[in-house]
Amino acid sequence: MKKISLFLMILAVMSCNPSDDAPEPTPELPNVPSEEVLKLPVVVHVLHHGEEEGDGPNLSDEQIIRQIEILNEDFRRKVGTRGFNDHPDGADTQIEFVLATRDPQGNSSSGIIREELVIEDLPENIPNFEFERYAYFSYWNAEDYINIWVAPYPDELTNVLLAKATGPDSGLPGDHLFLKPFAGGAEGIIINWAHFGESDVQGGSNLGRTLTHEMGHYLGLLHTWGTTECETNDYCEDTPAVDKVVVASQPYTGCNGEEVMIANYMNYTPDAVMNIFTNDQAVRMRYVLENSPRRNSLLNSSGI
Ligand SMILES: [Zn+2]
After folding, report:
1. What digits encode the pLDDT tens for the residues 264-274?
2. Catalytic residue among 36, 214, 231, 258
3. Domain 37-222+278-300: CATH architecture, name and number where available
């Protein structure tokens, strides 16, 4: 059972395609000079099946606001929270997320949209790509907002289908491994409502780290095992190379006799184990924010 669900998780959660051809050289990332805190606007589209607000997939505002707080605790390595670590390679990424205060028309907004998802309403010409289908119900332009959809998946997909994210065009090695949107099409992050924020859902993904992980992909991070080749891996030198999917909660050895960084957010380890983005990961994300078209424009959004 566990093996089956792990296999499905790998299929479902990975926004990367690990089957790859030629290894690429480790990039020399330009120094990112800016030390300023980068604030990115997010919009949360709660798609539900007609439940009352606060019931089932129609998550309460409180649940959503707390999830964004957790995201910031993790990205900012905030002292006194689960997101803090004192690892020598651990980073405060200097990236923060803010629920949008303006919608695309310039009207004030809470950054939380609620829409009933009626699958029968989907026109036939909508591509069979989950981001496009959800965007039909609710979507703000990806140049100015990070779209996060709370998906009303049925209970049988809890711990099976957690989330997925599109990845950026950055020119960095490895970025071809991401799930990419259609040209100019819908993109963002889709999260199973059961794993959005803190909850008592069993299975280890109940502390809000599913979004932290997917946001890492959205900003250009691969899984720590990357291509599953010890040589290329995730193109971050301070995440020890490992050639297999990392799910374990206990320390073990990966490539080159190095201890695997089980606490890295870009693993499949339980939420309670995760609390590190490394310096190289932070540099990679900030590079993407400086250079990738639909990420860089977020810095000048009028959404916040
Ligand atoms: Zn992933």
Report:
1. 999 999 999 99
2. 214
3. 3-Layer(aba) Sandwich (3.40)
